[in-house]
């Protein structure tokens, strides 16, 4: 099922210290005329591929900033242009929750949403409103949003971005996050910076991230029944057992799984590729979604696994787990998608130094050597 990362706006009401998009791009929002073209294109795709479904992830910027009128227009365009295919289109949203209200929740329900992705930061000065990053006001609005979506029966999970500010506080962070969301899931994620730009000195190295994860993993392992869905730990446990899925950046299968659409109609591969101006394939006004999925760069992505196995990742026992990491990382650090990710080092150190000794498990790549890694 193709996933469309739809950045309908680049505008945002927050000022995250690690965000490099707003600093490099002038925020804009898609017009209703262009939005109509988008749903014409989605319907074209679904009519051609009658056995497929289509997932839209509303993204930003901050997707709630466009308001109720925008999403009511989406409903109108679905009825107008996708009358026979709209039941094959699912909708999710990634939002900071500070602008959500009951009107928005009601229209999200009409779109079939029942879950929300968000992010959270307990420390001051990292996420917040305005130049001074008013974290207190931000978190008050954030928790009001959490209360509202839970009242309406929405499930939710969040990303925690590990910055230099907290790299020496792994157990403190773990205790805060698990108390914040005991039963649900969250993902620990390092800061990604464009071409090593780190204007606010918040970036961390792969080795620092590996040790940060490792210290948390010791604690998580003791309490894994209580907090099962902490990533990347849950995915690694699943993969060691039966070769289950890992996140998109380690799947080695993103060549035909994602597509990105920006507020000016620009088409790229995913959110990160658009932020970093890679894999640009034209505009939705001239290029259909069908054509975008047949673009030549996707053939290169399809060949990446084979190339890495013969070069950067030759002999790596963990290749069928991480597949050299995200191709965007290879481009970001070495100007080619045929390079392995810098974060592969974090994966290998974490698994060898912490995961395998603590769990007693040993990854057996022979279980998966018959997998078709080109898919």
Descriptive overview:
With 375 residues, this protein is α/β, with parallel strands linked by helices. 42% of the residues lie in helices and 12% in strands. The strands form two sheets. Strands 3-2-1-8-9-10 form a six-stranded mixed β-sheet. A four-stranded parallel β-sheet has the order 4-5-6-7. Strand 2 (54-59), helix 3 and strand 3 form a beta-alpha-beta unit. Helix 2 packs parallel to helix 3 (67-81) and helix 7 packs parallel to helix 15 (344-359). The model is unreliable at 368-375 (pLDDT under 50).
Q: What would you say about this model in short?
A:
With 375 residues, the protein is α/β, with parallel strands linked by helices. The protein is built from 15 helices and ten strands. Strand 4 (115-119), helix 5 and strand 5 form a beta-alpha-beta unit.
Number of helices: 15
Low-confidence stretches are 368-375
Secondary-structure element sequence? EHHEHEHEHEHEHEHHEEHEHHHHH
Helix content range of the residues, please? 40-55%
Our measurement of the CA-to-CA distance between the termini, rounded to an integer number of angstroms, reads 14 Å
The portion of residues forming beta strands comes to 5-15%
- Rg value: 21 Å
Mean pLDDT: 90
Largest β sheet strand count, sense and barrel closure: 6 strands, mixed
Secondary-structure content class: alpha/beta
How many strands appear in the DSSP assignment?
A: 10
Strand order of the largest sheet: 3-2-1-8-9-10
Rough outline: globular
